[in-house]
Amino acid sequence: MVEYIENGRLAGRNEPVIGWYHSHPGYGCWLSGIDVATQKLNQQFTEPFLAVVVDPKRTMSAGKVDLGAFRTFPDNHQAAGTTGAGGNQGNVPLSKIEDFGVHSDKYYSLEVSYFKSSMDQQLMERLWRKHWINTLSQSPLITNNDYTSQKVKDLAEKISLFSKETHKGRVVCRHSARGRCHCRGARSGPRVEQAQDEAVWSDRRI
């Protein structure tokens, strides 16, 4: 980051850096352990500073931008049981659930709003005039085939895992793929079961 700022100054760009962005293709907008460490380090040296995460696959599938903005809590902050990923945690793939759960109380989400300048409007109109014909020759089902297949597979794995644990007389928290809950505070069985049900039903909306 320091090198980037110095190179910008050498190029005559003195604008302050206020954040960074990266993508989570197909697994939602939230911060992993590495993301949390990166954001926390940058917040110590630059304020204000935020992390932006975009999911290009869900953006293509839904036809609207799937984007989240986040900041980390101070080290001495005591989480109140909420998570930073807002309503996206139910859509986290099974392979990412544990990483999400371990760090979900280390950051919080920011409200995101979009705006479009007159220059943006002109650019969008030119692009639309040039590429609108492509919408007649493309099928969303074909374009999103791989993503949809992955979501269905992930859903089947979650249902299978939940069924096995239920038969064993245990209820699995959605934050752990191995049955170990990393959430702070004790959770009653019915509440955890309800959370898992919400995650499953959320993933069915493809």
Account of the protein in words:
This protein is flat. It has nine helices and four strands; from the N terminus they run αβαβαβαβααααα. It is of the alpha+beta class and 206 residues long. It folds into two domains: 2-110, Cytidine Deaminase, domain 2 (3-Layer(aba) Sandwich); 118-203, no CATH class. A four-stranded mixed sheet has the order 1-2-3-4. α2 links the parallel β1 (19-23) and β2. The longest helix is centred in the last third of the chain and has 23 residues, at 145-167.
Draw up the topology in text.
Blueprint: H1 2-10, E1 19-23, H2 33-45, E2 50-54, H3 56-62, E3 67-72, H4 97-103, E4 107-110, H5 118-131, H6 134-137, H7 140-143, H8 145-167, H9 189-203
Parallel strand pairs: 1-2
Antiparallel strand pairs: 2-3, 3-4
Organism: Linderina pennispora
Subunit structure: Component of the COP9 signalosome (CSN) complex.
Keywords: Cytoplasm, Hydrolase, Metal-binding, Metalloprotease, Nucleus, Protease, Signalosome, Zinc
